[in-house]
Hints:
The complex is a heterodimer. By secondary structure, chain A is an all-alpha fold. Chain A has a domain at about 55-175: Four Helix Bundle (Hemerythrin (Met), subunit A) (Up-down Bundle). Helices cover about 60% and strands about 0% of the residues of chain A. The radius of gyration of chain A is 23 Å and the shape is flat. The mean pLDDT of chain A is about 85. In chain B, helix 2 packs parallel to helix 3 (about 65-75). Chain B is built from six helices and seven strands. The termini of chain B are far apart. Chain B has helices at about 15-30, 40-50, 65-75, 95-105, 115-130, 160-185; strands spanning about 10-15, 35-40, 55-60, 85-90, 110, 135, 140-145. At the A-B interface, strand 1, helix 1, helix 2, helix 4 and helix 5 of A face helix 1, helix 5 and strand 6 of B. Strand 1 of chain A pairs antiparallel with strand 6 (about 135) of chain B.
Amino acid sequence: MTKDKDAHYNLAPKRKADFHTPPNHLKMKVGYGGLSENILEKAQALLENNTADFRPLGEMYLESMMRGVAAVKALPEGKTNDERLISAILFPTMQLKANGGMFHYSLVTQISDRLIQFLEVVDEVDQEAIEIIMAFHTTVRAILLGQIRGDGGQRGKDLLNALIDACYRYFEKYPEKKPR
Amino acid sequence: MTYKFDKVRILVVEDNVPMLEICKSLLLTFGVGEVLSAKNGEDGYQVFRKENPDMVIADWMMHPTDGISLTRRIRNDPSSPNPYAPIILMTGFSEKKRVVQARDAGVTEFLVKPFTAKDLYKRIAQIIERPRQFVRSEDFFGPDRRRKADTEFNGPLKRESDAGLAAKQKQRMQSASLHLDKLRDKAGLSKGDKINVTDIDFS
């Protein structure tokens, strides 16, 4: 079909849009040339050497996650598909993922990232999903208590793989919930 | 010659204090002249109104007002001193639907946490070197959400074309997968086996 005959190209615009190009004040202020490698290295070193303790923050997010789990558990079966309930668990998980790696706990980031992927696709937090969430929760808690910084080496890899396997088993059991 | 950030003022809105401190230190290391700060979207908007900074870097998840609501306010509130202000949204989310959500609120750049110093610098440089034009329609005001012009789909219902294209692509992938399964069956191969041209009977 040619463009002339294709209905798509011949529809009246649904809405009008105006385009503006605001003046680039920032460019006028900063000039040209970018930042030197030296400054970027200095900034990266500052990130890597920060001594802030992530554990109190991590514990706070874990507690918030548990409150979300408790809210889901308190509901009768079949009523646990509310997006807000999933968010009550998802949002603290996202905070763990976001901040763990910023404060030297990259294994917390990797593990929480996996849980986010799981929570983003499940429509309902059933009993088995709660068990998986609890496994993630216990693992992250153990990492914080044991102060396992970085990726945790081979032990960290094994922990992560065990949790990934738990998610796979869940989707094997409930193929209809599998992400497409 | 390098960038001179000494005349630049940046507002960082973040409720996590250690993270706020890290962001401030990074920006000061870059040479930023003044780093303003606020601990949630509500306070952030008040500082933005009063100080009119050159750029805003905000976290997504904050109480009582999050980074998305702050962005909408900066873009649409009649009291906003600069609805065109560049906004970088920091978040742990990286899923496409979240990026789209942020983009639709009027965010200029999306920075996934955890990030490196270079990641932050790249977003700032992108804003300086490749500023986006702004679009005003009935239900949106913010930076143009397209990175580059798509000349193939220039009809009035571009978003619908995108969805149509994705559906067609999915259909093509499914039929290709079915075709592959048939070829495997014919060649007596199982799913993990590699298919050689010699395995296939083309008759």
